[in-house]
Amino acid sequence: MKDKLPSADRIRHAAKDLFATNGFHQTSMSELAAAADMSVGLIYRSFKSKAEIIEAIVHADFDEKIADLERIRQRLGTGEITIEKSIEELFLHAMRDSDEALSFDILAEGSRNERVGQTIGKMCERLRSYLRGFALAANPSLAGDQLEGAAELMLGCMFGLGHRRLAMPRLDASQTAEQSARMMVAALRAL
């Protein structure tokens, strides 16, 4: 399967695995080339730097997250699921990210590298647009700063829940998502 992927995808997949295991700065281009089964020169034809590879990983991961959000939004729109269940699914998706170490490394690189930081920021803005929609489904009267605050709170919850493993949680992911969604909807409706 790996050999059938285009070069850029093979590099991205190999990099994601190596960066998650070894860290971004601890992974050499020669290690990446070996894992992707190609030369270092071919990597540099696809990506100018490791930072560009990080950006490609961020784009691909966010595209998957956005597709998940779109499916949840459609199910909410058709009445298949409630707003509580929608937010529960959002939170469950946030907790399913098994690359917690990679996520921390990418966020750290975003703090050091302005271009990576801007890429993360742009992706978060895409995410916020969906979160505003979910907040409005819970409370259609939200507007202005309240709506922005709701989107920021939901985004913060998703980031936190996606990195909860180190906190040694007492509830499993399903219980956490269910309780957090109930509290989020109650808070949004109370505004």
User: Structural class, from helix and strand content?
Assistant: mainly alpha
Residue runs with pLDDT of under 50 for 5 or more positions: none
Total domains? 2
CATH superfamily of the largest domain: Tetracycline Repressor, domain 2
List SSEs in N-to-C order.
Answer: HHHHHHHHH
The N- to C-terminal Cα distance equals 50 Å
The biggest sheet amounts to: none
Helix content: over 70%
Number of helices: 9
Instruction: Based on the coordinates given, report the CATH architecture of the largest domain.
Output: Orthogonal Bundle
Kindly report the oligomeric state of this protein.
single chain
| CATH fold assignment of the largest domain | Tetracycline Repressor, domain 2
Query: What gross morphology would you assign?
Result: elongated
What percentage of the residues does DSSP assign to strands (E)?
A: under 5%
What is the name of the CATH class of the largest domain?
Answer: Mainly Alpha
Average pLDDT for all residues? 92
Care to count the β-strands? 0
Radius of gyration: 19 Å
